[in-house]
């Protein structure tokens, strides 16, 4: 079954606790942690918008109301800074709010990424969609091709009309932190997926090609998720559902251009902050 629809919808699973950033995340969603002056989740939504997706779905848990507040008007603040030099600091978020529609759904139990995506089915319906994990912050490539990772996946979807996941090579000793794929390279940097393993030990990993938090999925994935039994950590893993899908249909993995920061770890978060301060914030401040 071919899907000719352009991808309009993007899901943001954002129900996790962010325990690696305690106590900062005790009362604040980890997705709202700022990289310089902008929260992580906003970078992800801007990336989705750049890729042509303006219907944004957040899968949230308890204590995540700050995300909804961020993508809404704050009349008191806006009144206070109206007409001052500080008003320009709201330009980016206003653009996002003007161009996007937002839907919020609750994941009542933390049963894994696969379960979070399945929770979003009523919003997606029977059309292709994207998934962004805001912890993975993807910067634009420096070669002048300004599309970030999700835009690259969406362009490939137009050509191949199948589920596509973003991958990057990681040091072999780090395979235990990722879903790992193996497959056949059918074009430079594009692989037809044959197998996926969730968090394998280095000696068990088929390759060092790790899945990162950018996916384009066809709606068949929901049936596969419904039939996926809990795997690693007793959670429903999207990798297990994709592995089953890959046995029946084409699933591609692509080495995207650009740079990824693992902002779910303190080291990656600091690295991203320094990168964006040097390469984005300072340049915009001078402009």
Walk me through this protein's architecture.
With 287 residues, the protein is an alpha/beta fold. The chain has one domain: Spore Coat Polysaccharide Biosynthesis Protein SpsA, Chain A (Alpha-Beta Complex), CATH 3.90.550.10. It contains ten helices and 13 strands. It has helices spanning 40-50, 65-70, 75-81, 91-99, 113-119, 121-124, 149-160, 221-226, 238-248, 266-286, and strands at residues 9-14, 34-35, 38-39, 55-60, 101-106, 129-132, 136-139, 163-169, 179-187, 190-198, 209-217, 251-255, 259-262. The strands form three sheets. The chain has a nine-stranded mixed beta sheet, with helices on both faces. A two-stranded antiparallel sheet has the order 2-3. Strand 2 and strand 3 (38-39) form a beta hairpin. The longest helix has 21 residues, at 266-286. The chain starts with 8 loop residues before the first strand and ends with a helix.
Features:
287 residues; alpha/beta; Spore Coat Polysaccharide Biosynthesis Protein SpsA, Chain A; nine-stranded mixed β-sheet; two-stranded antiparallel ribbon; 13 strands; 33% helix
Q: How are the secondary structure elements laid out?
A:
Layout: E1 9-14, E2 34-35, E3 38-39, H1 40-50, E4 55-60, H2 65-70, H3 75-81, H4 91-99, E5 101-106, H5 113-119, H6 121-124, E6 129-132, E7 136-139, H7 149-160, E8 163-169, E9 179-187, E10 190-198, E11 209-217, H8 221-226, H9 238-248, E12 251-255, E13 259-262, H10 266-286
Parallel strand pairs: 1-4, 1-6, 4-5, 8-12
Antiparallel strand pairs: 2-3, 6-11, 7-13, 8-11, 9-10, 10-12
